[in-house]
Amino acid sequence: MDSNEIIFRKEKPLAIITLNRPEKLNAITPTMLQEMLADLEEAEKDDELKVIILTGTGQGFSPGADASGLRRGETREIASRAERESPMGNWGIFTQRLHETRKPTLAAVNGMCAGVAFCLALGCDIRFASEQARFCTVFVRRGMVASSGGTFLLPRVVGVAKALELMWSGDIIDAREAERIGLVSRVVPHDQLMAVTEEFALKLAKGPSLAIELTKYLVYQGLESNNFVSDLKAEAWAQSVCSASEDAKEGLRAFLEKRAPVFKGK
Questions:
Q1: 9 forms bridges with which residues in the sheet?
Q2: Residue 60 pairs with which residues in a beta bridge?
Q3: How far apart are CA 194 and CA 17, in angstroms?
Q4: DSSP string spanning 224-256?
Q5: For the purposes of burial, counting CB atoms within 10 Å of the CB of 171, is it exposed (0-12), middle (13-18) or buried (19 or more)?
Q6: Are 210 and 116 in contact (CB under 8 A)?
Q7: Distance from CA of residue 208 to its chain's centroid?
Q8: Residue ranges in the chain modelled with pLDDT below 70
Q9: N or C of the chain: less Cβ packing under 10 Å?
Q10: Statement: the pTM of the whole predicted model exceeds 0.85
Q11: How many helices (H) and strands (E) are present in the chain, helices listed first?
């Protein structure tokens, strides 16, 4: 299942999933979605891959689902029976898996990011944007509500009022406004986007993988459960897991020896 419209590169320790349909600004077809699901699952299983990056080629990140496919109803279909029968739909399944993967996920937004692609970017842990990036929820312009986790994720990223403003208005915002409201963490010159994203990803990859992944788990569990006592118990469990790791022992040795730690992800 290789259409060449999704490029999956393993540049260990990084996994890079690239939307590669520049003539359509990377509008996403059902086949592309299936490939991204498979690539994400492969990256999740490979312990040598520490960070997952999602980006696009050309002038756009993605305007969302391929409109021609929508007119034919193609995006309602996906190969897996379990995915066809899921009440979340195929888009929701991908956003869920992207959001729940234990590894850090970064979106490098290189251009227009709208519709379900906007929600896929929200599903990533951190978003970097080029100065040419633009963002739009767009759904209300089609008489629809935000899908693929947008109504859950966007308020948690930018706050309820700003999320409603964006979803109700369907307005397009530029990269600097996205940075101001916290939608993206950093805006960089267009030609430096991937270099900056990969530099940050490599910094994460050199860290203690277990502690980084458990930190992600604890943060999202806390946001979703909103229970302080449960968080304290989960933190205590995670600390006990980390304390038995080789990386924790290396971190202590490095501190005592007054040197930088060399973590192995074990």
A1: 16
A2: 112
A3: 12
A4: HH--HHHHHHHHHHHHHHHHTSHHHHHHHHHHH
A5: middle
A6: no
A7: 20
A8: 1-3, 69-90
A9: N
A10: yes
A11: 12, 10
Of the candidates 155, 156, 172, 153, the residue with the CA atom closest to the CA atom of residue 164: 155
Alpha helices, DSSP H only, in the chain?
Answer: 30-45, 67-72, 81-85, 89-100, 115-123, 150-158, 160-169, 175-180, 193-205, 209-225, 228-243, 246-256
Whole-angstrom Cα distance, residue 14 to residue 24?
A: 27
Amino acid (1-letter code) at residue 66: D
CB atoms within 10 A of CB 161: 9
Contacts of 136 (CB under 8 A, 6+ apart): 112, 113, 114, 115, 118, 170, 171, 172, 173
- Residue 71 amino acid letter: R
Question: Which helix (H) or strand (E) is 117 found in, with range?
Answer: helix 115-123
Supply the pLDDT for residue 78.
47
How far is CA 152 from each of CA 69, 146, 163, 170, rounded to the nearest angstrom? 26, 9, 10, 17
Buried b / exposed e across 63-82, counting CB within 10 Å, b at 16+?
bbbbeebeeeeebeebeeee
**Hey, what are 56's tokens?**
């696009």
The residue type found at 125 is D
Tokens of 198: 């990969």
End-to-end Cα spacing for the chain: 33
Residue with tokens 């034919």: 72
Only one residue has tokens 């010159």, namely 189
The amino acid at 233 = K
- Write down how long the chain is: 266
pLDDT number for residue 21: 95
